[in-house]
Design goal:
By secondary structure, the chain is mainly beta. It has helices at about 45-50, 80-95, 285-295, and strands at about 5, 15-20, 20-25, 25, 35-40, 55-60, 75, 105, 110, 115, 120-125, 130, 135, 140, 145, 150-155, 160-165, 165-170, 175-180, 185, 190, 200, 205-210, 215, 220, 225, 230, 235-240, 245, 250, 255, 260, 265-270, 275-280, 285. It has a ten-stranded mixed sheet. A hairpin with a 2-residue loop joins strand 34 (about 275-280) and strand 35. The chain is globular and about 60 Å long. The mean pLDDT is about 95.
Length: about 300
């Protein structure tokens, strides 16, 4: 939920406002939440936004604006991404897109005295939280989950606007959903989502290894194993049952298929199919990589 319904005209008062309409949150073109404002800087994003009835308003370029249907609010911008994120920061500062969840702590939980647990979190039954763990605002944790020493859940992630040669940090306003029977090992870091229209998610019975970093809006399915020292970038989707070995880096927006295996030390820059095994830098089908390695070693 958000703080309420807003109008584009509440924030735009010049010729950039082509068509006024209401919105209640910011999000992406695939948002599942009603009355979402999005930005589109390429044609494929406009197409997806037009097909999504939950998108009520669009910030886009003058060249792409003619593809926006009359039923949706429209802002024309030379830099849609920057204007969208600047509006995001303004709304966060004014507390206008704060995420609201049902807060509380379940039964039979075990929290170490040094753990820091936000009162704006929701924790299920029989959850164990060990030394120096930090649970930030808008984190939801399912039953029987174990979080070991030093893990940080729901922190800010890295996103910025570059304007006039300056880096402007983009604040995060979303949350994290941790399933049931999840294991999160020491010093893992899970960033909360940017917007309140989606979450960073970890599925049931998944294990997150030591010092692994999960980026904002990443979705890790059920029964996955993400080993230690991995970097799973923003908006990566790891399907159920996938196994990612130690020190792997997965680029943003990549999809890891169901039951896939990513071998240790790989750098993954493109999608991995269901039950496929990949390895290397850049990662490719594992047996092909082995054949190349053997040839190069002779």
């Amino acid at each position: 939920m958000t703080k309420g319904i807003m109008q584009l005209s509440d924030f735009y008062h010049d010729k950039s406002l082509v068509r006024d309409s209401r919105f209640s949150q910011l999000g992406t073109v695939d948002s599942s939440q009603k009355d979402t404002l999005v930005y589109c800087d390429i044609f494929s994003y406009v197409v997806r936004a037009m097909q999504n009835e939950n998108v009520s308003c669009v910030i886009t370029t003058g060249e792409l604006a003619e593809n926006v249907t009359p039923t949706k609010g429209l802002i024309v911008s030379s830099n849609p991404r920057n204007d969208f994120l600047k509006l995001h920061n303004k709304l966060v500062e004014k507390d206008l897109i704060r995420l609201e969840i049902d807060y509380g702590i379940g039964e039979k939980c075990s929290f170490h005295p040094s753990a820091i647990i936000s009162k704006r979190s929701k924790i299920g039954n029989n959850v164990t939280i060990n030394e120096n763990v930090v649970i930030k605002d808008n984190v939801m944790i399912g039953d029987n989950t174990f979080i070991d020493a030093g893990a940080i859940i729901g922190c800010e992630g890295l996103l910025c606007i570059i304007e006039d040669g300056k880096n402007i940090f983009v604040k995060h306003a979303g949350g994290v959903k941790i399933g049931s029977n999840v294991t999160i090992l020491s010093n893992a870091v899970i960033a909360r989502s940017i917007n309140n229209s989606c979450f960073t998610e970890i599925g049931d019975y998944t294990i997150i290894g030591i010092a692994t970093n999960i980026g904002h809006e990443a979705r890790i399915g059920a029964k996955c194993v993400i080993s230690g020292n991995c970097v799973i970038a923003r908006r990566v989707f790891v399907n159920d049952g996938a196994r990612i070995e130690s020190s792997v880096v997965v680029r943003e927006h990549v999809i890891i298929g169901k039951g896939a295996q990513v071998k240790a030390g790989s750098i993954v820059v493109k999608n991995v199919g269901n039950n496929q095994a990949v390895s290397g830098n850049f990662a490719m089908e594992h047996n092909r990589h082995l054949r190349q390695y053997i040839r190069s070693s002779k």
